Amino acid sequence: MNDLIQLKQLLSIPKDIVITSHRNPDGDAIGSSLALYHYLNKGGHTVHVIFPSEYPDFVAWLPDAAKILIHDIEPEDSERFLKRADIIFCLDYNSLERIDKMGEVIMSLNTTTVLIDHHLYPDAFADFSLSDTTASSTCELVYDFIELLNDKELIDLKISQCLYTGILTDTGSFKYSTSPKLFRIVAHLCELGIDNNIIQDLIFNSMEEKGLRLLGHCLINRMEILEEHQTGIISLSREDYEAFDIQRGDTEGIVNYLLKLKNVKVAALITEQPKIIKLSLRSKGDYSVQAIATKYFNGGGHKNASGGAVYGTLQGTVQKFKNILPEYQHQL
Ligand code: 5GP
Ligand code: MN
């Protein structure tokens, strides 16, 4: 982290702080934001967490999730808090474009910003930045951040539950981007009392029946395997959204099922949203879906997990994705 001493000085006096994370917040976005929220609260700061859009139900149990402001729902309050903040934290995203209107507001202000993130190629917009693209999750970096500020003893059970949630979801329960350092952090969170069984159930075993039926539908009726390109595609139309009453978060994790196939290295979930076509891309090994998301789908993310969106039709976007695959064949 650059200028840590300066930031430490800033935080030594109670401040008005806003913590932001990206649209469609996932477990890491909300876990890191709430962990930092509880930590900063302990330092006597006045803290608000604001997301552009709503978070999924499987994280609603996290301590103080109910206090999070959603810009889509409460734009006036959200912007009022942003405007009066002394410091704005930007967690789990690498560009102000990822938070839509909130990003425009932040750009128009002269407020001190702090970036904590693990996505590739961060924009240079923040005054202080803790960016490590090798980190498993932003939660891992929030732990590092607290440690850098010499406050490790302030990490309590609530903070641990938040951090553990983001680590679990971003590593797919320790399947991706783990390291000895991460397991040492997790060991510390266990010592602080987190219950792995309970948290695993709250996050991964709390589906509604319609969610499991949707998964079945995706695998039986909407999955296409392109042997030549070692690629799997699942596409969902607006009609599927209606038939299965798909809500925010219901498609989370579906794309990963494609990677269970021995001969699949690249996976895509392509969904028809009200205004755009959204892509969730995953890969194994050195194959970079980040390159595809950035070059062709206005997106980005990580080497093995990226996303993007385009205007167009579902069929047209699926075809576009298929047409791109030969260009990346050498990565297989
Ligand atoms: P997911 O497929 O789960 O939505 O996202 C996977 C990864 O890609 C996440 O790290 C997420 O931040 C990133 N990502 C998803 N959608 C977009 C997007 O539209 N733009 C950018 N830059 N990154 C995205
Ligand atoms: Mn993350």
How does the overall form come out from the CA principal axes? Answer: globular
Give the overall pLDDT as a whole number: 96
Q: Count every helix, treating DSSP H or I runs of 4 or more residues as helices.
A: 13
Q: How do the SSEs run, as a string of H and E? A: HEHEEHEHEEHHHHHEEHHEEHEEH
The distinct bound ligands, ions and cofactors come out as: guanosine-5'-monophosphate, manganese (II) ion
State the share of residues found in helices, binned by percent. 25-40%
How would you concisely characterize the structure shown here?
With 332 residues, the chain is an alpha/beta fold. The protein has helices at 4-10, 27-42, 75-84, 100-108, 138-148, 157-170, 180-191, 196-204, 209-221, 238-243, 254-258, 289-296, 314-324; strands at 16-21, 46-51, 69-70, 87-91, 112-117, 128-131, 223-226, 231-236, 266-272, 277-283, 300-301, 305-310.
Topology at a glance:
Elements (H helix, E strand, L loop, with lengths): L3 H7 L5 E6 L5 H16 L3 E6 L17 E2 L4 H10 L2 E5 L8 H9 L3 E6 L10 E4 L6 H11 L8 H14 L9 H12 L4 H9 L4 H13 L1 E4 L4 E6 L1 H6 L10 H5 L7 E7 L4 E7 L5 H8 L3 E2 L3 E6 L3 H11 L8
Helix pairs in contact: 2-5, 2-6, 5-6
Bound molecules: guanosine-5'-monophosphate and manganese (II) ion (MN).
The site of manganese (II) ion (MN) has 6 residues, from loops.
What does this protein structure show overall?
α2 (27-42) packs parallel to α5 (138-148) and α2 packs antiparallel against α6 (157-170). Helices cover 39% and strands 18% of the residues. The model has no long low-confidence stretch (mean pLDDT 96). The protein has helices at residues 4-10, 27-42, 75-84, 100-108, 138-148, 157-170, 180-191, 196-204, 209-221, 238-243, 254-258, 289-296, 314-324; strands at residues 16-21, 46-51, 69-70, 87-91, 112-117, 128-131, 223-226, 231-236, 266-272, 277-283, 300-301, 305-310. It starts with a helix and ends in an 8-residue tail after the last helix. Strands 3-2-1-4-5-6 form a six-stranded parallel sheet, sandwiched between helices. A six-stranded mixed sheet has the order 7-8-9-10-12-11. It has 13 helices and twelve strands. The protein has two domains: 4-204, inorganic pyrophosphatase (n-terminal core) (Alpha-Beta Complex), CATH 3.90.1640.10; 209-331, Diaminopimelate Epimerase, Chain A, domain 1 (Roll), CATH 3.10.310.30. The chain is an alpha/beta fold and 332 residues long. α2 (27-42) links the parallel β1 (16-21) and β2. The protein binds guanosine-5'-monophosphate (5GP) and manganese (II) ion.
